[in-house]
Amino acid sequence: MAERPEDLNLPNAVVSRIVKEALPDGVNVSKEARSAIARAASVFVLYATSCANNFAMKGKRKTLNAGDVLSAMEEMEFQRFVGPLKESLEAYRRDQKGKKASELKKKDKEKKDESEDADKNREEENEEEEERMEEEEQNEQEEELET
After folding, report:
1. CB-based contacts of 14: which residues, under 8 Å, 6+ apart?
2. What is the pLDDT of residues 22-49, one digit of tens each?
3. From CA 6, how far away is CA 138, in angstroms rounded?
4. What own/partner pairs with CB < 8 Å and gap ≥ 24 does 115-121 have?
5. Which residue in 42, 46, 44 sits closest to 14, CA to CA?
6. Topology of domain 1-77, per CATH?
């Protein structure tokens, strides 16, 4: 838990970037206004988290999930954000599935490469063993001929 209330504020750099992206070019925001926006955003996040936590507790869970957040938004009377949030959530889930699929492909390729390397090493070892055995046979034959 945070030791001081200021520890709960969102980082000023993040808030400044969001504000800058939301406003048209040429619009300036004072330091005081950025600070107020950062505090308001922090309060909003804490309130939304608290409401979502209530839904999790009603479900006898300790972990907040996306459904809890969406329900909290409706309870807080921010219904107009629910649709865009659902769309963002779906996009996030698709991205995660894509990342997992590409990671699995990468791991499969690495395993295949390792397997091929191991097969190649075994073949080389077998060839070396065959050569050694042939040399020993030749040496034995030469010794027999000498005697």
Report:
1. none
2. 999 999 999 899 889 988 998 999 999 9
3. 85
4. none
5. 42
6. Histone, subunit A (1.10.20)
